[in-house]
Amino acid sequence: MKKYKLHQWLVLLLFTVLINACSKKITNAAVIVEEKLKDLSADSAYTPPAFILIPDDKAKTNKEDELYFDDNYGYRYWRYNDGKYYLDPKHNKNISVKKKTSVAVKLAKASS
Q1: So where are the chain's domains?
Q2: Residues 78-109: pLDDT tens digits?
Q3: How far apart are CA 65 and CA 112, in angstroms?
Q4: In whole numbers, what is the pLDDT of the chain averaged over residues?
Q5: Per-residue burial over 13-37, b = 16 or more CB atoms within 10 Å of its CB, e = otherwise
Q6: Residue 67: pLDDT band by 50, 70, 90 thresholds?
Q7: Within a 10 A sphere around the Cβ of 45, how many other Cβ atoms?
């Protein structure tokens, strides 16, 4: 049976500690991302406004020098010529709009 010297064991020990330390960092980052997603989904009652007014210095620019703004809930707004930032059309699909109906219409539906 082959005998290992002390420096060989130390190299092996150092290697395993290094692998364990790196793998825990990746796991912690994944947990943080999952927690942020849970926080965003917990506020599901939030419906973003159709447009917002913000100063241009708070907005960011893309490659085509178009101004946009990302709010705290992950919705993106694009600046149009009138100076307002309008909600990105891809987010309009996910928003359920509550239609206002009159009392007479509700009563007619209830009676039929």
Answers
A1: 1-42, 46-112
A2: 999 998 999 888 876 655 555 444 445 555 55
A3: 56
A4: 74
A5: eeeeeeeeeeeeeeeeeeeeeeeee
A6: very high
A7: 5
- Tell me which residue has tokens 């420096």: 7
In this structure, what token pair is assigned to residue 61? Answer: 């620019």
Q: How confident is the model at residue 36 (pLDDT cuts 50, 70, 90)?
A: low
- With tokens 């942020």, the residue in question is 36
d(CA 77, CA 79): 7
Task: Pick the closest to residue 84 from 67, 63, 65 (CA basis).
Answer: 67
Is the separation of the CB atoms in 67 and 82 below 8 Å?
no
Interatomic CA distance for residues 46 and 73, integer angstroms: 9
